[in-house]
Amino acid sequence: MYPSGSTRSASSSLNPRPGRDSSNQVIVPVGPDGRINVYNHAGSTHAILDVSGYYGPGSQSLFTPAAPKRLLDTRVTPGPLGPNRTLPLTIGGANGVPADATAAALNVTVTDPTADSFVTVYPGGTARPSTSSVNFQARSTVPNHVITPLGGDGTADIYNHVGSTQVIADLFGYFSKG
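Request: output the structure for the sequence above.
Response:
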């Protein structure tokens, strides 16, 4: 993906494999016409693009990087996240993140899933969106970069759709009002 009106670079945003769903969070500048280009190098594929936020002039939140910190590893506790289940994750007000943090930058990894499925990370205490954060196949390990707003109580919810899976969440930064 790249801004419209510009030359495509040699870098990639996602490297899918045939017959496998893949997901990735990508931050892409928009072109002067407000659009981006999506390029597929070989073969044919379907693409789903979800806009989950934007950066712009006058932003009210600043990013603070943090030394990577493991916030969740269901292999240790509380165990696999089952089908159609949600697990709350406390971020703001804990783990060196201020209570007034507005969003978190995470690396979310699923491992040992029993079925093809997806997990969604979203602000705690809000309605779950219809988008996914990590798509995966049974018996795979898949990480993805996730930036999620936090609920008013400083939490994010992690939802698993089908089967059960282990989930690992590592914090590597947060956004707070500047």
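The radius of gyration is 17 Å.
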